[in-house]
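Study this fold:
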Amino acid sequence: MKRLLLFATLVISSSLAAPAFAAAPEAASPEVVRTGLMLTLLAFVPAIIVSMTSFIRIAIVLAMVRHAFGMPETPPNMVLVSLALLLTSFVMAPTFASVNEGALKPFLAGEISVDAAMEAGAAPLRDFMLAQTRDEDLASIYAMSGAEPPATPAEVDLFKLAPAFILNELRVSFTIGFVILLPFLLIELVVASILLSLGMMMVPPATISLPIKLLMFVVIDGWALVIEGVVGSFR
């Protein structure tokens, strides 16, 4: 399973960083095996994108922006997911390029074995996740598993690093979400107080606050600020 996930990472990097492959030579057994293996491992691409890339933080922050307006269906899920995927490819481009150059291309050229490709492809992905993960989260995961903490970053198990990485991504995305939600909450409170003072208790505050929030967000170019903030939060 570990090898399957790592090799699927190589497939992602190929699609984002590598040019189209040259026409394959006449049918050769190793090439057929490699092609069949890559096609099979494509099923693991969604799991890797969700658990080992910047997609988690970006998707959660964008969803919180939508809920801050009180419009759970606008923008549609397809729009937010597409934007999150594009931003993820932007953030992860250096990592995928390293995987492509160090593991995928040599493997497809027959210069290295599968095991060597796995190790070479895992290193850039491990470095990215370690840069975002707190030592406390990683130590907690190792403590729960009963395993000894690694002595060096290269010894960190990806299947223990991934949960620690996800915990950190959830923490950071909720922190960013709090900063985003606070101004909208203040607008809601001000509008509710004004309506109450005018005796308009039957008017839902959201009816008045929604246009105000939209206007404020457009004036300050909110989407650009949110995207710059969440992309800039990656180390």
Observations:
- The two ends are 28 Å apart (CA to CA).
- The chain has one domain: 2-174.
- DSSP finds ten helices and no strands in the chain.
